Amino acid sequence: MSTTPANRFVLVATEWFDGERRHAHGPTTFKVVDGRLAGLAEGDHGETLAAQGWPLQRVAFLMPGLVDAHVHLFLDGGPTDQATRSAHLKQNVEQLTDAARRSARQNLAAGVTLVRDAGDRHGINNRVRDEACDPLAGLARVRSGGLGVKRAKRYGTFMATDVDDATSIRGSVTKLAEANDEIKLILTGIIDFDAGTVTDEPQFDIPAARLVVETAHACGRKVFAHCSGVKGLDVAVEAGVDAIEHGFFMTREHLLKMRDRGLAWTPTFCPVHFQWAQPDAVGWSANTVGNLRRILDDHAEHLRLADELGVRLLLGTDAGSMGVVHGLALAEEADRFQEAGLGVDAVLRAATSAARWHFGMAQPRLAVGAPWEAVALGASPFGMGKLSQALGRVERVWLGQGA
Predict the structure, then answer these.
(1) Measuring CA to CA, which residue among 146, 142, 243 is closest to residue 187?
(2) Residue 258 to residue 310: CA distance in whole angstroms
(3) Considering 32, 34, 145, 198, which has the largest number of Cβ atoms within 10 A of its Cβ?
(4) What is the pTM of this model?
(5) Are 116 and 242 in contact (CB under 8 A)?
(6) Number of independent structural domains in the chain
(7) Taking a C-beta distance cutoff of 8 angstroms, is the pair 358, 314 a contact?
(8) Which portions of the chain are predicted below pLDDT 50?
(9) Is residue 403 part of a domain?
């Protein structure tokens, strides 16, 4: 499915999306040299260039490689029984690393060329990130959160280290920044679905969370915060984290501040949607299923509002969570965005260029000079109905040199 580009070739796309907008006015010709987009022109110039010795390819729809902005590579989202999931976590580090490699391959096969790994306590994400730098490895590229930070005896043991006072925060964040691409802050626990809300207090107050952010920024690293619930969101926004992950129980006031302060949001519908759609896998009661539906509906309403207000949205799946399968989940998350009322262009932007802009990548769109990190689909997602119908038809994936 995935390949390293030949030294040069020409590709003609019937339609394409550059990461920001759709181009559907007719065929476009792309010239790729040494893994970078060397030129593009309106019209079909394929046969002319083929006659000059350029290998020719034709595709129905072209777009930048997809980005899953929130995954846990070492976790396997396929098994839905607790015994199997528990046994998976008891494997040794080498076995878990192999699982992470499989996850990265699954992502690439699904057109996901870049993932942001949201933390594991073994450093597997950093290891696979380094392996994925080789375009021949067959792995999706990895932006790694390495090991995050949390409070002792609180949620997040599988992906974070404990910090205590200000000295501990400064020292830990500074050390983690040497290996991590970003710093993960575990700000809250998980949602109590039986109660239908977040019941515990935030792990960090505003001054402590702000210290994490300031220290990370001084080290040239952004901060992304695991956070849900009004109290936790208050802390995240006021502390100035760069991105909020999950963000259930969002409010309009939070979104307005996020827009004005340039904070991104990765909503991660998939894990909660799975538990609503398949409650027997978790053993939820009818009351809890009702809570799940209410939470999802509220989340969709605020996602739609975020889009209207201009908050930067990143598409992330939390792949590795129960029922959230690496690679396949991205199309499902795209459906959730679409069901919330976002247009196809907005969803594709969240799944391609928005994350690259947020990560500070120099060339986040398909443009001349950019790495040829692209995906060809068998049909256009525009007018298809569910986005998953088109995103599930990946025909070719390219990982350009220097992407």
Answers:
(1) 243
(2) 9
(3) 145
(4) 0.96
(5) no
(6) 2
(7) yes
(8) 1-5, 402-403
(9) no
